[in-house]
Specification:
- The chain contains 14 helices and 15 strands.
- It is α/β, with parallel strands linked by helices.
- The strands form four sheets. It has a five-stranded mixed β-sheet with strand order 6-5-4-7-10, with helices on both faces. Strands 13-12-11-14-15 form a five-stranded mixed β-sheet, sandwiched between helices. Strands 1-3-2 form a three-stranded antiparallel β-sheet.
- Helix 1 packs across helix 3, helix 8 packs across helix 9 and helix 10 packs across helix 11.
- The two termini are 31 Å apart.
- The relative contact order is 0.13.
- Belongs to the ROK (NagC/XylR) family.
- This is ROK family protein.
- It holds the Pfam family ROK.
């Protein structure tokens, strides 16, 4: 049985712990909750009443009964509160309002250079987010958290970017502190690939415990979910595969100062550079994708080779973390099966058979929405935690 008998620190008599059973959205009766927890029916009733007062659970259609009055069922009320989810990319920004189930209620995207600095970018995020809340007719008091993804390393414990290579002016900037000067709610910050992994899992693989999400765009990185939990590592840079050395590129310089990094060989700009060296008129990763879609042989072969290079690094990842799913996303994933075919070619050939027997290597199902969905999950997981429920009760 689940031990939730201890009262919460804020005096809501264990309602926050009881809520952890209800947050999956499955309807339950007072009797089933009492049976699961071992608590008295009167105790369960009091805690359910407290959660209903907060609006976090709501009665749903009655369960079937063998006779007499059917028992009432209760479940999570996703509409009770809202969160803001922000995807701040290198050259774009997206803000969305979602409910507590992660359903996007409204969103807005604009071109935005992250190099404009934190005050400018975060100022747009706050202003656009509040505008969306108002457009939905929701009270800003219903906003309970903000999740933010940024294109650089983040010290997760503080939410501060640390030495981000493409984010001038953001190093050690107190993102949560600045945002909370304008919106007094919890602010959760993580790097973009980590939140993309959360978004991909929530949308397409909710029951998968071991997943690696690989973003291939201007840079290359991965988010690792193991045992159902996002793995950030000691300093928050777990999954930084873009700067793993690949033998084929031993002499190719990388902006990090080393040579032979995966990112210097297989990112969008790297593929474009390789094609220009062959005399192909292409300037960016997006140009490469368009050539692939038109069936250009040189572009297809270059993308396929990039997939092989990525697969070489992922072979080591497969041996280390043994995922069930590798999802490939980012702007270069729009090249479709050509990139993924290169990854599969190497991973399935070089990995141990047991590790790949049930391994799926697929294109991201969440695609361009992965980051916003993941930022939403980051905020929601915090809000619906026992500590988050206690904080809501104290507001």
């Amino acid at each position: 049985m689940v031990d939730i008998s201890r009262g919460s620190a804020l005096g809501i008599s264990g309602a926050s712990e009881l809520f952890q059973l209800l947050r999956d959205g499955a309807p339950r009766t007072r009797a089933s909750l009492a049976q699961t927890t071992g608590l008295a029916r009167s105790t369960i009733a009091a805690r359910v009443d407290e959660l209903m007062r907060l609006g976090l659970v709501t009665p749903v259609a009655d369960a079937a009964s063998t006779g007499g009055r059917p028992p009432s069922q209760f479940a999570l009320n996703p509409a009770a509160r809202i969160v803001l989810a922000a995807d701040l990319g290198a050259s774009h920004a997206t803000i969305a309002v979602t409910d507590l189930a992660g359903t996007v209620l409204a969103s807005r995207s604009e071109p935005m250079d992250i190099a404009r600095g934190p005050e400018t970018v975060l100022g747009w995020m706050v202003e656009a987010g509040l505008a969306l809340v108002a457009e939905l007719g929701r009270d800003r008091k219903e906003l309970v958290a903000i999740g933010i993804g940024v294109p650089g390393p983040v010290e997760h414990s503080t939410g501060r970017p640390v030495n981000p290579p493409i984010m001038p002016g953001w190093d050690r900037f107190d993102v949560p502190g600045w945002v909370q000067q304008h919106l007094e709610v919890p602010v959760l910050v993580d790097n973009d690939v980590n939140i993309m992994a959360l978004g991909e899992r929530a949308l397409a693989w909710p029951n998968v415990e071991h997943l690696v999400f690989v973003k291939v765009a201007t840079g290359i990185g991965s988010g690792v979910i193991s045992g159902g939990l996002l793995q950030r590592g000691a300093q928050g840079i777990a999954g930084d595969i873009g700067h793993v050395r690949v033998a084929r590129g031993a002499d190719v310089p990388c902006h990090c100062g080393n040579r032979g990094c995966l990112e210097a060989l297989a990112s969008g700009p790297a593929i474009a550079r390789a094609l220009r060296e062959q005399g192909v008129d292409v300037q960016s990763g997006s140009d490469v994708v368009e050539l692939v879609k038109r069936g250009d042989i040189d572009a297809i072969q270059a993308v396929r080779q990039a997939g092989r290079d990525i697969g070489e690094v992922l072979t080591a990842c497969v041996s280390l973390v043994n995922p069930s799913v590798i999802a490939i996303g980012g702007s270069m994933a729009r090249a479709g099966e050509h990139l993924i075919a290169g990854v599969r070619e190497v991973v399935y050939t070089r990995s141990m058979p047991l590790a790949t027997e049930h391994l799926a290597i697929v294109q991201s199902a969440a695609a361009a929405n992965a980051a916003v969905l993941g930022a939403s999950m980051l905020a929601i997981h915090h809000v619906l935690s026992p500590e988050g429920i206690d904080a809501l009760a104290a507001r």
